[in-house]
Amino acid sequence: MPVMKQTKTTRGTLSQVLRYLKRYTPALLLSLLLAAASVVLTLYGPILIGDAIDLIIEPDRVFFDEILPLLIRIGIAAAAAALFQWIMNIINNRITYGIVRDLRSETFEKLQRLPISYIDSHAHGEIVSRIITDADQFSDGLLMGFSQLFTGIITILGTLIFMFAINWKIALVVVLITPLSLFAASFISKRTYSMFRKQSQTRGEQTAFINEIIENEKVVRAYGHESEAQETFREINERLESCSRSAVFFSSTVNPVTRFVNGIVYAGVALVGALSVMTDPAFTVGSLSIFLSYANQYTKPFNEISGVVTELQNALACAARLFELMEEPAQIPDEDGALVLENANGNVEIDGVDFSYTKEKPLIKDFHLSVRAGQRVAIVGPTGCGKTTLINLLMRFYDVDKGEIRIDGTEIRHITRKSLRQNYGMVLQETWIKTATIRENISIGKPDATDEEIIAAAKASHAHSFIKRLPMGYDTVITDDSGLSQGQKQLLCIARVMLCLPPLLINDAATTAIYTRTEMKIQNAFSRMMQGRTSFIVAHRLSTIREADVILVMRNGSVVESGTHRALLEKGGFYAELYNSQFSGSAGAAK
User: On the CB side of 233, how many CA atoms lie within 13 Å of its CA?
Assistant: First the structure.
C-alpha cells in the first residue's frame, strides 16, 4: 500500500514537471531532433566500419581505394554527430535552467502570498533549503535526464531498428534478454524515491538548524550551549548520512544489475553471430563486427539510464518539496470590489473579536475597543497577554476568528490589504535592514522621496548624526550584519515611518533597544509625529505612555482596565500594580 501511494506521488510530481516543460516545447522538439540525428550518425559509423572490414580479405587483397572514401565518410559522420550533440547540450542547458528559474520565481512569488501563519510556523532555514538546495538538486537531475535519457532511449530504439534490418534472428536475441534489465531498473528505482525524499527532508531540517544556530550564536555561547548544539547537529547529521547512504546504496545497485544483463546480451550476440558467420554466407565478418558494435552501443545507454534514474529519483523528490510549498493554501485574496483606502481619518473600532493561533489555546476573547481619530492608545500587560497579537490583527497579518475590526466604519476585510497597510506606519521591536544603501533602506515606503525628505526624516529620528559618520554617508551599503548597533538599526526603521507619516501609527516597543537618552529624543519625535494621527503604542516601559489618551491594560487576551494614566493609578488596580512594580522605591511611583 505505501508503494502505491509513493508511485502516485512520483507520477504527480512528474506531471507537474512536464507542465513546466510544455513552455519549452519548441526547444525540446529541436533537442529531440538533434539527438535523433546524432544517434543515426553514430549508428551509421559501424556500418561503414563493417563495410571497410569486408574489403580486407587477406594480406594481398586489401582494397585501399574503396576503404579511403569509407574512412572519410566515417570522419564526417563522427564530426557531424559531435556537433549535433554539442548543440543539443546547449539547448538542454537552456531548458533545464529555464525551468528551474521559472520554478524558483514562482515559488518565491508564492512565498509572498502565503499567510503569515505559514511563515511563523515553519523554520525559515527549511524554507530556504527548499528554494535553494532542492532547486539545485532538481536542476542537476533534470539536466542529466535531458542530456542522457533522451539520447539513450533514441540510441536503444535506433540500434534495434538497424539490427533488425541486418539480421532479425540476432536482433530477436537482444529483444528477449532486454526486459530483464528494464525490470531490474524499474524494481529498484520505485523503492529509492522515498529514500531520496527522506534525504531531502533531513537536509532541509539540517539547513534550518544551522540557520537557527548562526543567527543566535551569541546566545548559544553566552549560555554555554555549544555542546548541546553540537550534539543536536551530530544527531541530524548522522540521520542525513544514514538516509543518504541508504538512498545511494540501493540506487547504485541498478548499474551493476544492468551491466550484468548487458553482458549477457553482448555474449548472446557474439555467440549467435559467430554461428551465423559459419552457416550463412550472406552474414560476413563485417556484419558480425557491426552487430557487436551495436550490441555495445545498445547496452551502454542502459548503464547510463540507470544512473539517470537515480538522479531523476533525487530530482523528483526535491521537486516534490518545492511543489508542496507552491501548493500550500495562499492567504485569502482581497474580495472583489474591495475598497482602496486612501488617507484614512483614523477611526478604529474593534467589535467582539475572538482570535487564537491554535484552536486549543484561545487568546483574545470578546475584545471591544473604540478609538477616535487622532487618539493615542497605549497597550500594556504581561508577556503573552495579546498585545502584539492585537497589532497583527489591526494590520491584517492574521484574520479574526469572530467579530469585526473597522476603520472609518469599513470592516478591514472589505479593504485591500495593500491600501490598509499603506495607511499604517509600523515600527517593531525587531529590526529589518535589507542589503542596500542607507538611503534605500529609509525610502522603502516612499521610493520616490527626495534627498531632502530622507535627510529630514533621518534628522527627526536622530539617525542623521551616525549616518554622516559612515564612510559614504547615505550612500553607504549596509546589511543586517554590517556592524550597526541594534539601536542604530532601530533608528533607521523609525526614519522610514518619519518619511511616510501615514494617518495611523503603530509603535510595538520600538525603543526597547535604544539608549535611554536617545529614547527620550525619540519619544519627543514620536510625540510630534503622532499629533493628529491615531496611534497604537505597545509599551514595556510604562513611563513612556503617561501622555496617552487611553491606556488599555490587557490580561489573558482581554482588556481588564482602561483609562488615562492618572485615573488607572488612582483606581489602584492591575495597572497600578504593574506600574509600581517598575518604579517601586522611586518618587515616580506615587505620580
Answer: 14
- What are the distances in angstroms from CA 314 to CA 2, 172, 188, 198, 386? 18, 35, 13, 10, 44
Other beta carbons less than 10 A from residue 311's beta carbon? 20
Q: What are 30's three cell numbers?
A: 529541436
Q: Which amino acid is at 72?
A: I
SS3 of the chain: helix, strand, coil, percent, to 5:
70, 10, 20
What DSSP assignment string belongs to 320-340?
HHHHHHHTSPPPPPPPTT-B-
First to last CA, the chain: 72
Domain spanning 430-501, CATH class: alpha beta
In sequence order, what DSSP letters do the residues of 33-94 get, joined into one string? HHHHHHHHHHHHHHHHHHHHHHTEEETTEE-HHHHHHHHHHHHHHHHHHHHHHHHHHHHHHH
Question: How sure is the predictor about 36, in pLDDT bands with cuts at 50, 70 and 90?
Answer: confident
DSSP-derived letter for residue 251 is H
Q: Residues near 136 by Cβ (< 8 Å), separated by ≥ 6?
A: none
Say how far apart CA 193 and CA 432 lie, in whole Å.
Answer: 40
**Domains in the chain: boundaries:** 8-326, 430-501
Q: What does the pLDDT look like over 317-353, one tens digit per residue?
A: 888 888 888 888 888 888 888 899 888 888 999 898 8
Q: Cα dihedral angle (295, 300, 303, 309), rounded to 10 degrees?
A: -110
Q: How many CA atoms lie within 13 A of 369 on its CB side?
A: 32
Q: Residues with Cβ < 8 Å from 591, sequence gap 6 or more?
A: 569
Distance CA 539, CA 544 (A): 7
Architecture field, domain 8-326: Up-down Bundle (1.20)
Q: Would you state the cell numbers that stand for residue 241, as one nine-digit string? A: 548520512
Question: At which residue does the C-alpha cell 513612556 appear?
Answer: 544
Interacting residues of 514 by C-beta distance below 8 A, sequence separation 6+: 487, 490, 491, 522
Q: How many CB atoms lie within 10 A of CB 273?
A: 22
Rg (CA), the chain: 36
Confidence of residue 590 (pLDDT cuts 50, 70, 90): very low
Q: Do 302 and 155 touch, CB atoms closer than 8 A? A: no
Nine-digit cell at 213?
Answer: 544556530
Could you tell me where the beta strands, DSSP code E, fall in 284-412? 348-355, 364-371, 376-380, 402-407, 410-411
Cell match 576503404: residue?
67
Q: How far apart are CA 539 and CA 437, in angstroms?
A: 31
Pairing of strands 410-411, 477-478: unpaired
* DSSP 8-state class, residue 358: B
Q: Which among 426, 423, 417, 402 has a CA at the least distance from the CA of 339? A: 417
Is 313 in a helix, a strand, or coil? Answer: helix
For residues 498 and 533, what is the distance between their CA atoms, to the nearest angstrom? 13
CA distance 491 to 476: 16
Residue 171: closest CA among 55, 257, 287: 287
Instruction: Give per-residue pLDDT as tens, 339-393.
Output: 998 888 889 998 988 888 887 787 888 888 888 988 888 888 887 777 888 888 9
Q: Report the alpha-carbon distance of residue 172 to residue 183 in Å, rounded.
A: 18
* Alpha-carbon gap, residue 151 to 584, rounded angstroms: 81
- C-alpha to C-alpha distance for 227 and 209, rounded to whole angstroms: 14
